[in-house]
Amino acid sequence: MSRGLQSTAEALVITFLMALAGVFVVLLFQDYLVVALSSWISGEPKMMVKLEIYVPRVDAEYCAVVVIGFGSPSHSDVVYAGEVSPGRMVVARELRPAVVAKWSYDPETGERRVEYYEPVEYLVVVNCPREDGTAYQYGRIHQVFPRALVWTHWVEVSFSESEH
Whole-prediction pTM value? Predict the structure, then answer.
């Protein structure tokens, strides 16, 4: 291989590796990038609440999952609605204004820091129907106190089996 072709091949490999590293960084930090970008576009600080909902393996073809966020007593939004196979993870994301609800002080440095942001409630409903009329059902309100600009809340689904 001539020196010119070798240099071109090396440059292509380096470019490919840099692109691959860039994709990895974007995937790793995508939630933070979304928060930063939306805050910059809207001109107000934003935060993201993520609910990770693991739907256990049950004897059903699919499970319907609905997540409704209650931002205030008079306002609610559907954050997620969809069908998944039992045994899968659902991630529901919501961007919210980053309003600090409680501050704390570090006694060593005297600096003020966020204790948590404005809390929010989510209604999580999971229903897994079967042909024989029996369904696995879950419904619960989760109160979340976000403590960072990207906050993950784990939802543990425990089913009750009921006859219809």
Answer: 0.72
